[in-house]
Amino acid sequence: MSMFILAYLSVEEFESVLGMTREEFYKLPKWKQDLTKKKVDLF
């Protein structure tokens, strides 16, 4: 579900909420992506 939410965030919103660019986020291992999403209540 959260993957769909991430798709609707603008570039600015994504960087503001997650603290990194989409490119940086998707380079992370899956477990670290999940941990990052949990920290901002998107998981």
From TrEMBL:
Q: Which GO terms describe its molecular function?
A: actin binding
Q: Mind telling me which PROSITE patterns this protein's record contains?
A: HP
Q: Which SMART domains match?
A: VHP
**InterPro entries (alphabetical):** Villin_headpiece (IPR003128), Villin_headpiece_dom_sf (IPR036886)
A Gene Ontology biological process noted in the UniProt record is: cytoskeleton organization
- The superkingdom of the source organism is Eukaryota
Which part of the chain is the HP domain? Answer: 1-43
Q: Which SUPFAM superfamilies match?
A: VHP, Villin headpiece domain
Q: Which Pfam families match?
A: VHP (PF02209)
What is the protein name stated in its UniProt record? Villin headpiece, villin/Gelsolin, villin headpiece domain superfamily
Taxonomic lineage:
Eukaryota, Viridiplantae, Streptophyta, Embryophyta, Tracheophyta
